[in-house]
Amino acid sequence: MLPHKTKLHSIKRKLVNNITAVISLILVTIFLTVDLSVDSWVENQFNKSLTNKANYLKTLVKDHAGKLEFDFAGEFMSEYEQANPSEFYQLWHEQHTFEKSDSLQLYPGVDLPNIDIAVNEFRIIDYSLPNGEAGRAMISHFIAQQADDNTADSGHFNTMVLTIAAPTAALNKVLIIIDVVFVLTCIIAVFGVRYLVIRIVNRDLYPLNNLNEQIKQLDITETAQIINSDFKVEEIEPIRNELNKFITTNQQLYQNEKRLTSDIAHELKTPIAELISLSEVALRYPNDERISATYTSDILAISQRMKTIVNNLLLLQRAGSSAIELTIEKLNLSAFINNISNELQFKHPDIEQRLQLDIAEDLLVNVDKFCLHTILSNLLDNALFYGERQHSVNLQVTQASDKTIITLCNTLATPLSGQQLEAIFDPLYQLDSSRTNNQRHGLGLAIVKSLCNLNNFTIRAENKADSRLALILTLPN
Questions:
Q1: How much is the pLDDT for 155?
Q2: Among 47, 352, 357, 363, which residue has the fewest nearby CB atoms (within 10 Å)?
Q3: pTM above the 0.70 mark?
Q4: Alpha-carbon torsion angle 205, 208, 209, 212, nearest 10
Q5: Which SUPFAM superfamilies does this one have (predicted)?
């Protein structure tokens, strides 16, 4: 059984269909309205033609002092002659046939319809003609016109009923032609509208298609690649700008990853090389007491250094991937920092003399204890290691209603450049003074930065007067 394929939604297809449907509906409505109006006008013209003929025939009926005459000349209205029996008329006086058209004489015993209507009224009805064709009949009840030679007014008026009938074949043919023309015009208009809509939509979607083509050609492994636009579109520019930010960020991450991979290899290469060298020397001189006496302790020291690097890398990875579960608790910051100071005393025996604290005894913060402990331990360790020993390290804490600010300052031999300030939190970044120290790996401040991002803290470094470096940590309350 073939897997079911979900049909993708298409902006272009939906746009074309919706615009075509709306415009087509408007066109069909207009064409239908015009068609009905034209049909009505054509029928009215046909009925008007019947009315004109009936009015003309009425004028041919004269009342000469009660004597009725019908003065009809067939040469002027040949449609009523036997030679061309296409139309018919019949006159009645007092319900008796008064006159018939010659065309109706061809059908003995056939009378046109006569219905009872008021005087000076008329009615038009559909009627099957004597020759079998479909037609229409007009029945009119009127008063015969008084002749000019009437000398006396008797007060009596002779009423007549006139019925004329005409075929509707020509009318129906015209109506069919009109309907066909309007239907074809409507269909052509709908397809024409769809064609134009597709052309317009394709043209207006060109910037989007162009953006897609540019995205296909992107390669984040190359630097300084962005999506350019010669023709700016208001709706697409925000997308383009965000994509460029995303591309730039990923290019930086890719470059950082390359650098980090290289630095990790470099950091592990040195202790591995030391292990290999020690092992080769021990194998070559197995009986040399000078080598065997320190071999195991040297191996252990190198292994512990490698373990420290790996543990810090794992902590950096966990902090960056949000794998650490935060447990918020209330801490007394003064006591907490004093405990960290005591823990660092084995690495910095003079920490009590060098570290100057400016913090209220009852200052409380709501934080994750592990994260804050790791952050402050690394900050203090770095400040004490890089700071000039003859100068103190100052830690000041200020608290506002919405945040707590921890500022740690130490004095450097040489102030950091702007590039160094930007790179100080990068993984495995080391100042020249720490590259010869086997215990410094350039991971501490990178871990601090990742944990700050995880806890919504902010950390920044800036130069102060007298070659002092300030690391400013902000905790939201």
A1: 58
A2: 352
A3: no
A4: -170
A5: ATPase domain of HSP90 chaperone/DNA topoisomerase II/histidine kinase (SSF55874), Homodimeric domain of signal transducing histidine kinase (SSF47384)
